[in-house]
Structures are given as structure tokens and as C-alpha cells.
Amino acid sequence: MYKDIFNGSPISRVTMETQSEKKRAAYFTEAELEVLMHAYEEFKPIILKRSNPAASAKARELAWQKITDRVNACNPSGATRTLSQVKMKHKNILQKANRKKTEARLTGGGPPPPPLTPSEELALSLNKGRPVVAGIPGGSSSHILCTTSDGEKRVKYTDGRIVLLDSPERTQSVTVDEDDDDDEETTSAVTEVDNAGRSTEYIPRDLPTDEGPSASAHNLSRLPAKELYKVHLQKQIRKSDMEMDLIQLQMEEKRLLIKKAALEIELLENRLKEMKK
């Protein structure tokens, strides 16, 4: 009885029509995608600007709304795209372009990957120089993937931190899962690491500890990951030893101050006794 009522009710028909409209709205034409990317290029400084959080969020929302209006204006089918649909489509374009770019580099004799569409090529050119970030809604973890074709990792040591680098003409991929739909934190882009002028030779295992700052940083940037991690641990040990020495000196200083105060008290007591005599 209830099945027949709901299957024939207006509510059921409206629900089915709404679901059908949502499904149809998921398809963007290439013209819409190109308009989307060109509009994003125009409003990119506003979307990526970082200043006052509230003001920036409002400005970004307004910029995305203008992009959405332009996409809707060029839609020949008359379908209306929402702001969230446009933002999600922008992320999908970047992720798909990045995936194709990576597949093109990894193919070794197999069938070539599908070519980039004009909108995907524009997406890569707009985001060149930015890290590759693929956002997953609801995520909360982050990891870095950085390997070369032969599995060898290259690293750089900067300000006490280890930074992984790609070999020449490789793509650096970073995956960040954040529970935030901010465009800058959930955007995918391709970073080409230019190492054409960088030497691939490794320096000897025993690195001098008395090098100057510039020479040390220059040599450390050429170390393999294992050797660099060893240097990093050695520096951490030296730092801990210095901190322990500092703590001991501070304790010795306090001990001497206490001893000095005790001697001064004893001296005053002796003077007081002499005065009483």
C-alpha cells in the first residue's frame, strides 16, 4: 500500500526529476571548461590572496560567483551551474590534467595516455610553479610522494629541515587531504623542478663539520637521503649536547649564587656579633 502511494505521489516524481537534473548537470562542455579556466585566470590573484581571513574569504566567494556567472552565461543548454559545482569542476580539471601529465611521464612502451584538452592545458599553465595538491573532502591527513624513475630519492637540507626533491625533469607530487574547501588548499597543480644546472655527484660520506654556512648548505643539497638523515641526526645530537651543557652551566650559576648568598649572610652575622660585643 505505502509502496504504491509513494511510487505514484508527486513527491516521488519531484525527487526523481531532481536527481535526474543533478546527474545531467554533472556534464560540462569543453566550451564551459575553457570559459571557467579563463575566468579563473582573471580572478586568480583574488582567489589566492592571503590577508584578513574574513575579508579574503568574502572576496574569494565573490570571485567564484563571478566565474560561475560567466560559465552559466556561455552554457548553450541553459543548465544552471552552482558555485560549488564550478569549484569542484575546477579542482577536477587540475587533478585530471596532473594525472595525465604523470601518466605521460611513466609510460614506457605502452599505449600513450589521452591528450590534454585545451582546458587542462590552460589549468597546468596557470598553476605552473605551485605544488601538486589533490584535495579529498573530509580528509585530515597529509603525505608527500617524491620518487624518481629508478626509485632514488633526492633531498635538500634547509634550516634544519629535510625537503625531498625530484630528479631533473620530474614532477613533484604532494597530496594534502584537508577538511577545507579553500581553493588554495585543495587545488591541484603541476610543479616542474628545474635541475638542469644541478650536479648529480655525491660528496664523500664524511662531511666536515667546520665548513662555512654556504659551502655546507651547497654540499648537503647533494647528499642522498640516508647520508643526509645521518647528518641531520648528528646535528640534533650536537644540539642536545649543547642544550645539556647550557642547563648545567645555569645550574652551576644558581649554585654559586646560593653559595654567595650564604657567605654574605654568614658575614653579616659575624659583623652583628662583633657589634654586640
UniProtKB/TrEMBL annotation:
InterPro entries: Myb_DNA-bind_5 (IPR028002)
Domain (Myb/SANT-like DNA-binding): residue spans on this chain: 24-101
Pfam families per record: Myb_DNA-bind_5 (PF13873)
Region (Disordered), start-end ranges: 96-118, 169-219
Entry GO terms, CC: nucleus
Bias (Acidic residues) ranges: 176-186
Protein's name in the database: Uncharacterized protein LOC113054998 isoform X1
Gene source species: Carassius auratus
